[in-house]
Amino acid sequence: MISDYRCFNCFTKAFGKLIEKEELSVAQKNSFIKEMAFMYAGTGNSFSAPAFSRELHNLLRSYTLNADPYKFEKKQCNDLALQKYPGLKELILSSEDPFDTALRLAIAGNIIDYAATGGNFDVNATIEKVLSTGFAIDHSAQLKKQLSSAKSVLYLGDNAGEIVFDKLFIESLMHPSLCFAVRGAPVINDATLDDVNYIGMDVVADIVSNGYDAPSTILNRCSEEFQNIFYNADVIISKGQGNLEGLLGKTKKNIFYLLMVKCDVIADALRVKQGDFVVFNEQYR
Fold it and tell me: Phi first, then psi: what are they for 131, rounded to 5°?
């Protein structure tokens, strides 16, 4: 389980900013923070960052009555990425290694994250960096080889905006049986069915909801439909820290984790540095 005291510090900062964004009274803000601390104390040794995040967002909804507090930001991110799509598509098609370029761009898209960055991210700088930097963990050759023989692929989506970069990668794969998974309901800026339909992901992949509203993939909480797809997939591509937190060490499935490392907790778990780019499969560690 990937978690320590630093996770709570991160939640405190993130939700401190979020309650300032919402129209809450000082008394409501004070009450929310107290409830958050009480909930954390109640987790004991069973703390899970993705599960705790879900509970906090449900708690916040009870104060704000806003089911999707990042709805505007998600559309902004989708539109921003769609504007970049034609140029990035041309970059992939003209590159010496389209698979590598598309893979790198997919990982660059992981910077679009309101949970870890609070919305303070630079997409262009990240694209430039990922195209000129080696992977801190590089299992991309194994990923490419396994995709060539896989009968079925499951791609676990992460954030709105980022999904446009995922679409570019999926288009480059041209796999005949690839399913793209999204969250079961809005949470942070994670992608939902509305987001993938908006950016046209349904044109290049089958779409499935995981049936749960955590910012992660918590298997025992996901729908039966999703679990069947998950356990029957030959290769699973998992995007982002949230999915990694929910799955790492919890399943023997063949999972390739694609992400930009955004915090020291994940960096320590993977034995890399914050800011590193990673293509990681536990089987090759």
Answer: -80, -10
